[in-house]
Amino acid sequence: MEPYASMSKEELLEERKKVKAVYKEYQNSELHLDMSRGKPSTAQLDLSMGMMDVLSSDADLRCEDGTDCRNYGVLDGIHEAKVLLGDMIECNPDNIIIYGNSSLNVMYDTISRSMTHGVMGSTPWCKLDKVKFLCPVPGYDRHFAITEHFGIEMINIPMHSTGPDMDMVEQLVSSDASIKGIWCTPKYSNPTGITYSDETVRRFARLKPAAPDFRIYWDNAYGVHHLYDMDQDNLIEILAECKRAGNPDMVYKFASTSKISFPGSGVACIATSLNNLEDIKKQLKVQTIGHDKVNELRHVRFFQDIHGIYEHMMKHADIMRPKFELILNRLDEEITGLEIGKWYTPKGGYFICFEALEGCAKKIVSRCKKAGVQMTPAGAPFPYGKDPHDSVIRIAPSYPSMEDLRMAVEVFIVCVKLVSIDKLLEEME
Ligand code: PMP
């Protein structure tokens, strides 16, 4: 396969004619396909239906210490849920607060509390002239939406195959006290799929922030979301590493069972140092009497222990793996040789991140839409929705059926080809 960039104008025009004809065919097929949403498929949700049976009307809803989970109480979560989620995120149960159904909600609360009340006695951010956050890009749009909502200035940090550009992170964090945090999705990252290298995590733990209230927002949303049983990414546990490096209070770690059990009806948590936990609880006890202990118990009784979660995730993997492989194989067969796009091959998570030629992402997404395939809007994985190179497109393979996905990826490939040819032809003008 010859790279498009080395073709003559005539050859490109010829190729365009062929690709356009295929595109027209798709356009006439009235497709309604969706690769935009990072949601589990129905088959994945079905895996957790047993959870509906573990708490029947005659079940004993007391937890291990005798607490009746049907009643008020237990601000920070029942112990057995802390053990289960602690094992899942490799943290001591004593360092955990179990929350409600959403980790994003916990992240929002964490920023909100820092704005109004500060972090461990420091000046509330709302009283400061400027508050900034570092945002590795591409990243998770909802992280960026939270910081944007609070008027926090966001600074893009390029992502490499090892994680964020740590030279830049170290330099900025140590020199600017208005930088209060960094958003991280360290494992099977949304959307690049990469996992931070050992060196990256070690450098994170050894940061020397100018701001004493600087925190790493470590969103371990995809910690156990492997695609393979034997070929998995490994991530150094950040709390322990920060403690070893003499920075025990520098990290908030977030996680939930959203894409393990039911999104929106899972269990979320934060793990952090005892000092941070104490600070958080001062607010939490005003905010709520306690979260949904019945749901915590339901999760514990269904999964039993970390092995139960692991086995369950392998069932998810059996559904997700063929979808990822289908897309990755087709991209490889159709795009690699043409040199009109790059992507990383993830070993887990929910996304494939396609990097098109500069200036092409919006046009590709729009072409896809016109042919009946919905993609995540171009620019979404960047602060303020602005991709400086207009090149990143997030592909979410989880929700559609294999049959739909087979068609959707073909449409996507044709759109990538068409838009790339147009760009190259334009450059020849
Ligand atoms: N963090 C990341 C990186 C995510 O991709 C998602 C879900 N798309 C969430 C958090 C949301 O998690 P939750 O359902 O626990 O709010």
Features:
binds 4'-deoxy-4'-aminopyridoxal-5'-phosphate; alpha/beta; 13 helices; 3-stranded antiparallel sheet; 2 domains; 14% strand; 429 residues; single chain; 8-stranded mixed sheet
What profile does the largest beta sheet have? 8 strands, mixed
Run of helices and strands: HEHHEHEHEEHEHEHEEHHHEEHEEH
Helical amount among residues, as a percent range?
40-55%
Classify the secondary structure makeup into a structural class: alpha/beta
Give the bound compounds. Answer: 4'-deoxy-4'-aminopyridoxal-5'-phosphate
Architecture of the largest domain, according to CATH?
3-Layer(aba) Sandwich
Low-confidence stretches: none
Keywords: Aminotransferase, DNA-binding, Transferase
InterPro entries: AspAT_Ic, PyrdxlP-dep_Trfase, PyrdxlP-dep_Trfase_major, PyrdxlP-dep_Trfase_small
Pfam family, one: Asp_aminotransf
GO molecular function: DNA binding; L-aspartate:2-oxoglutarate aminotransferase activity
